[in-house]
Design brief:
CATH architecture: 3-Layer(aba) Sandwich
CATH topology: Rossmann fold
Shape: globular
Number of helices: 5
Order of helices and strands: EEEHEHEHEEHEH
Strand order of the largest sheet: 1-2-4-3-5-6-7-8
Radius of gyration: 16 Å
Mean pLDDT: 96
Oligomer: single chain
Strand content: 15-25%
Number of domains: 1
CATH class: Alpha Beta
Distance between the termini: 32 Å
Structural class: alpha/beta
CATH superfamily: Alpha/Beta hydrolase fold, catalytic domain
Helix content: 25-40%
Length: 211
Amino acid sequence: MNAQTQRLLLQGRAGAIEALLDEPAGAVSLGTAIVAHPHPLFGGTMDNKVVQTLARAFVQRGWRTVRFNFRGVGQTQGAHDEGRGETDDFLDVVTQTAPEGTLALAGFSFGSFVMSRALMQLWPQREVAKLVLVGTAASRFEVAALPADLHDRTLVVHGENDDTVALASVMDWARPQNLPVTVVPQGGHFFHGQLPLLKSLVVRHLSARVD
C-alpha cells in the first residue's frame, strides 16, 4: 500500500499465512484492525481494491492494520475450505499480530462471512471497538448475527445495484437484528468509481465515538 508496508509470513494451522502490515503515522495506535478479503475461488486476495480501501481508512484513523491472504492464495499454504479453515486463518492472524489490546475487524464479501464467524469466537473475550462489513455475502453464506452490544460499533455498507450479492439478501440478514445498512446509490459489488465514497463512509464511522 505504501513504502512502509511490512510483509509478514505468519504460521497458520494449514501452514504459512502471507500478510501485510501498515502502521499509522505517530507513535501510538488505537489498536489493530484485521481486514479479510473476498472469495479466493473468484480472484479474491488481500490486494483487492476494496480491501486496500478499507486498510487505508483504518490507517488514516490511527489503526495498525493487517490484511492477509486466506489459505491457497498467494504464499498462504493450504486449500480453500469454504469458510471453516479460513476462520482459523483469521483467528491465527489475530493471535500472532494482536495477541492483546483493542481490535477492529473488517471484511469484504466472503471476508465479511469469515469475519462474522471469527467474531463469534473472539467476543466477548476481546475488546472489539469497530466492525465494518462491506458487500456482506448474506445470499451465499450463513453470515453470523452480530452481538447486539456491538451494533453501535458496526458499519454495514452495500451497493444498491450489487449483482453479486443482492441488497435484499443483506436486508433479510440485517432486519431480524434491527441492524442498519448503509446503501450506496448505484453502487456495485466492487464499488467501481465509488471507492473514495466508500473510504469516506468508513473513516466517518471510525471517527465516531461510542459511549
